[in-house]
Amino acid sequence: MIVNVKATNKNNGEVISYKLEGDGDAGFLYDGTHMQEVTDNKIREVNNNLILLGSPLYTIKSGESAEIEAMTFDIEINAE
Fold it and tell me: What predicted TM-score, i.e. pTM, was given to this entire model?
């Protein structure tokens, strides 16, 4: 499954958009790298919010969308 991620920084309005590929059981990859091992600090910070307990990332199904409000980012995800 592919999950589109759009994160808007609450402090400066910067928008980060990227895709994760995988599933809730096996985990998700960003450009072939496990989502927790991404070297880009901004993307890794968003990913850290996505992996928290209760995150919709692990329960979202194809065609569904969800929103997550984190301390620094407003995050929208939708599954293809």
Answer: 0.92
